[in-house]
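pls read this stuff:
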Amino acid sequence: MSLLNEIIQHNEQFVESKQYEEFITTKFPDKRMVIVTCMDTRLTELLPRAMNLRNGDAKIIKNAGALVTHPFGSIMRSIIVAVYELGAQEVFVVGHYECGMTGMEPKQVLEKAQSRGVSPEMIDTLKSAGVDLNKFLTGFDYVHDGVVSSVQMIRKHPLLPKNLPVHGMIIHPETGRLDLIDSGYEV
C-alpha cells in the first residue's frame, strides 16, 4: 500500500469515528502567541509539550532552521497575519540543537539536486536570472546565530508594533529543555 493510500484510509476511519472532536478549537490562538520553529520531525510533538501547549494555543510556523530570511517573505507575512488578524501578542523563535541547517553548504545541496535530475543548465539559468543560490541554500554556523538573526528581523520589521515581545529560544531535540537566548520583555 502506498503512503498516500495509507493516509487516506486512516483519515476515513479518523473522521468516521469522530476522533477529530478532541481537537476542535477556533482559528485564534488561545495563548495569543505565534511560534517560528524548525520543521525537524523531532519537534512535532516535543515542542508543544515542552512549552505546555495544547491544540489551539499557538500559531506555529515551521521551516528549515526556524529562519526568517526575508522581511517580505511568507514567514514574515504569516507573523503579521497572526498578530493583526488572529490576535497574537507575542512571538517566539525556537531553534534547536543539532539542526540540519548547521553548516549546510549550497554546493552539496546543488550536487544532490543534480543527482535527482535537476540539470546544470537549470542551475545556470537560475543564477543568470539573479537568484543567489549560495545565499538561498546556506545554513548557519551556530543555531544561536540563526535564532538571533530571526529575532532581529522580526523586531525591526516596519509593519510590526515596536512593543511586540519577540523572544528567542533553543530547544534540545531529545530532552525538550528550552534555553532562553533573548527575552522580548527586556528590549
Observations:
- The longest strand covers residues 90-96.
